[in-house]
DNA sequence: CCGCACGTGGCAGCTTGCTGCCATCGTGTT
DNA sequence: AACACGATGGCAGCAAGCTGCCACGTGCGG
């Protein structure tokens, strides 16, 4: 089943949203859809009772969803309502929703015309998509953890230090390799560990890996 | 379009496999499908010329696909043929194939009857699934890297050590916390670092993260 | 019983990592 | 010029991590 435009989707699929009993998961590039007024309203109507009634809600976004402060505030609010939010560092479909593992809704990439939605209940398709979602979900990082670690705010120096650490050099060879004194190199490592909120170098390595600073 | 059984799939969708021009990706729990004789043969016919002609092939499996030696040997052979193989530590759909980002084939979880396949060309569905696949793919680890670090072969003790390291404890508190002597704890850490082929604790943390040993 | 292998733990000494202190140097401000 | 500020590096001392050595206990086969 294919519908065009948000209005038609809401008209024909609203019962799917409100009828979610056990689980509601969605993956999206950004918050675009839910920030549209009409969608917001119907979602708002659904949300309050939902979390209390044993419904788990999972939302997976790309970092694009954190672009502006309004979006971050909205996500924080959503989290406060018991919704699990994770951020994936890899591209995501523009919109994918799976409800109770029985029905799913996919949205096409934005084109010139109204957005096109596809609603499917085929168990084969839904299960396949659900499993892929689960894999992407497991690999993503919790929103709070993501906001805590400021991955993008690292300068080139810090990245160089990170690479040296990742290469397994001892401090002395790493410092020589980077043209730094031992003291300064260790200072840099200490700063890095502070920004990563790591208590040990092992933990720092773990965090660095989590935040995708390896590549 | 839905087909039942491997024979019917091959009869009706063989041209899709042989017609792949640019990209062939699949995600599966194990090698079950391709180890079946008839499927193997038609794949074998397709493979040789494929990699040479600018076709990229990506295969994503769970660790289940590495269960027996025959499977590992087959995967090594496949890799030698230029196919990219990655292992995801999270559950995957039983079978998902996307060809040239235009058509996809999903297989239902094995039931009592013949396996059921769904072939779809809807751009919305295919793009959605493709993006999810890409996210799962990016998060998975290269087969060679996976085989090098023996993630699954870690006993509970090692996992406990790993958790202690990840928690940022000092060796002393970690040892006390695990009921080990300092000496033994450090022995364990050294062993762990050896199996992870890490030269430093930082590197060990990085590897542990890469291999998905955080959870 | 003896010997053997293996895992464990204590000890000691060494290396590595960590950090406070101070001197130096360059930059930019008053 | 004088000054402040920040970044750097040397030094020293301490903390943490690493490992070789030996001793002890346990289990196993001779």
Summarize the structure.
The structure is a homodimer of 215-residue chains. By secondary structure, chain A is an alpha+beta fold.
Strand proportion of chain A: 15-25%
Number of helices of chain A: 10
CATH class bucket of the largest domain in chain A: Alpha Beta
Output the helix-strand order of chain A.
EHEHHEHEEEEHEHHHHH
Largest interface summary: A-B, 56 and 57 residues
Distance between the termini of chain A: 41 Å
Using the coordinates shown, work out and report the CATH topology of the largest domain in chain A.
Endonuclease, Chain A
Assembly status: homodimer
Instruction: State the fourth-level CATH superfamily of the largest domain in chain A.
Output: Endonuclease Chain A
Average pLDDT of chain A works out at: 76
Structural domain count of chain A: 2
Radius of gyration of chain A: 21 Å
In CATH, the architecture of the largest domain in chain A is: 2-Layer Sandwich
Structure description:
The structure is a homodimer of 215-residue chains. The first copy, chain A, has 2 domains: 2-148, 2-Layer Sandwich (Endonuclease, Chain A); 151-210, Arc Repressor Mutant, subunit A (Orthogonal Bundle), CATH 1.10.10.10. The two termini of chain A are 41 Å apart. An 8-stranded mixed beta sheet of chain A has the order 1-7-6-5-2-3-4-8, sandwiched between helices. Chain A has 215 residues and is of the alpha+beta class. In chain A, helix 7 (156-167) crosses helix 8 (171-178) and helix 7 (156-167) crosses helix 9 (182-195). Helices cover 52% and strands 17% of the residues of chain A. The first copy, chain A, binds a DNA duplex (30 and 30 nucleotides) through residues 170-172, 180-184, 186-187, 189-190, 201.
